[in-house]
Amino acid sequence: MGDTAITVLVVDGHQTFVDVLGEALRGQPDLSYVGHARTGQEALHLVAELRPDVVLLDPELSDTDGIAIAELMRHRWPDTRVVVLTASNEAALVGRATAAGAAGFLTKNGPLGDVLNAVHTAHGGGMTVSTDILARLLRSTAPVVGPRPGGLTAREHEVLELMAAGLDPRAIARRLGISVHTCRGHVKALLAKLGVHSQLEAVAAARQRGLIQ
Asked: Which of 88, 95, 104, 124 could be stapled to 128 by a disulfide with Cβ–Cβ 3.0 to 4.6 Å?
């Protein structure tokens, strides 16, 4: 295994799932499984110590709300990317996870290959959402016909297209040659204009309105 291997920490209280996932991660030559935590407090301690590239996180932890832990990680260690793995398929949970800065949202009953791909995508600055979760979110987003008040600026539309391509604000900023702060300002404006609370919901609403394909 080379020095450039992507380091991965698993945060989950279900030992059988952790064992299976850990074995899959160990079998990848470009991934390095650095360990696992069973609780949110253990997770924060290990992330501070190990600084993993990617954290695979169950949002339903025994001691705390996993989404809150994901948000803490984003603020304390912005270079560590979080992918949420859950037994739930609630669209509202996806919105909370993306608002907290998660770089992926997958259900535990999906293929292990999807999880491994999500690790690579997250490390590269992109976002992965299970197709069944995305379909549920699209169904839950009320369709709106016609343009929204004020419209989008050309830059906001560029940001929206890149969001739809799975890029996060840091990757979008690099692509457009703007600062992350400026990019987050465009994202905030997009959410307000579309009447949503997360980037994923913004993409779903934009598709409903025919703003993007």
From this structure: 104
